[in-house]
Amino acid sequence: EADALRGRPDSIILQNRARARELNGLYAAADRDYAVAISMTSNEVAPFWLRAALVKFQLGDGTESYNLMRRVENRFPEAPEVRAATAAMLQARGEEEGARREFLE
């Protein structure tokens, strides 16, 4: 039975492993784990999606990270972490005024 359980992915385990990989600088591996975890919960935006977006941003996937961030922002519009991350992404895209507005709102 334990072997059968090990063979099935679990969203929480994938999120935790992704976070561990992220903290150790293994961004590509973290991105893969986050992607699978998101695919398992795709109808339900969760806070860990913010970390997934930031990993994509770290890997240079600006478009995909920004799109994912927007979904998180729609679900959690008042979360300060989301606002700060969105402002950082806008700044990196050269949208200084938008970044300032997002950060100060």
TrEMBL record:
<protein>
    <recommendedName>
        <fullName>Tetratricopeptide repeat protein</fullName>
    </recommendedName>
</protein>
<dbReference type="InterPro" id="IPR011990">
    <property type="entry name" value="TPR-like_helical_dom_sf"/>
</dbReference>
